[in-house]
Specification:
Length: 149
């Protein structure tokens, strides 16, 4: 049984668009579908905002992470430039996906097409402590390839 209750409300006029759903018994992410009124072409190098036709309420302490679908990324170069996109628990607007085309051909998005996936994750807000020094580590300031390729 799930420990998280995700409340969804359909946008008027989107009764035919699938709500988020897990496509297999052990899927980590729910597929999100496009709730567009007409086909949208995403040219190479273009970025488009695609509505999903629903609103949601997450419990406090959770976020929704919106991620690319691997098949669309591999076959068509569709990705999410802000991946993973974060939807906070206090957001009540329509869920939308920022799609970008890094492929070499235009991609047509159609109504009810599965365009992204959404993972529900626990989050913790950190307590911020301003200090004058940080503890030392073996790695120190090494970064961006410092530990090998």
């Amino acid at each position: 049984m799930s420990e998280v209750r995700l409340q969804l409300r359909r946008k008027d006029g989107c009764e035919d668009v699938s709500l988020p759903q897990y496509m297999s018994d052990h899927a980590a992410g729910m597929d999100l579908c496009a709730a567009i009124t007409e086909d949208v072409s995403v040219a190479p190098g273009e970025i488009k905002l695609i509505p999903c036709g629903f609103y949601m309420a997450l419990p406090v302490g959770y976020e929704a992470q919106v991620r690319p679908r691997s098949g669309l990324a591999l076959r068509h170069g569709l990705t999410l430039p802000n991946s993973p996109g974060t939807i906070d628990s206090d957001y009540r607007g329509e869920v939308c996906v920022i799609l970008g085309n890094i492929g070499s051909e235009p991609v047509t998005i159609t109504r009810n097409m599965r365009i992204a996936q959404m993972v529900i994750a626990r989050v913790h807000q950190a307590e911020i402590a301003v200090v004058t020094e940080l503890d030392e580590t073996a790695r120190g300031e090494g970064g961006f390839g410092h530990t090998g390729v």
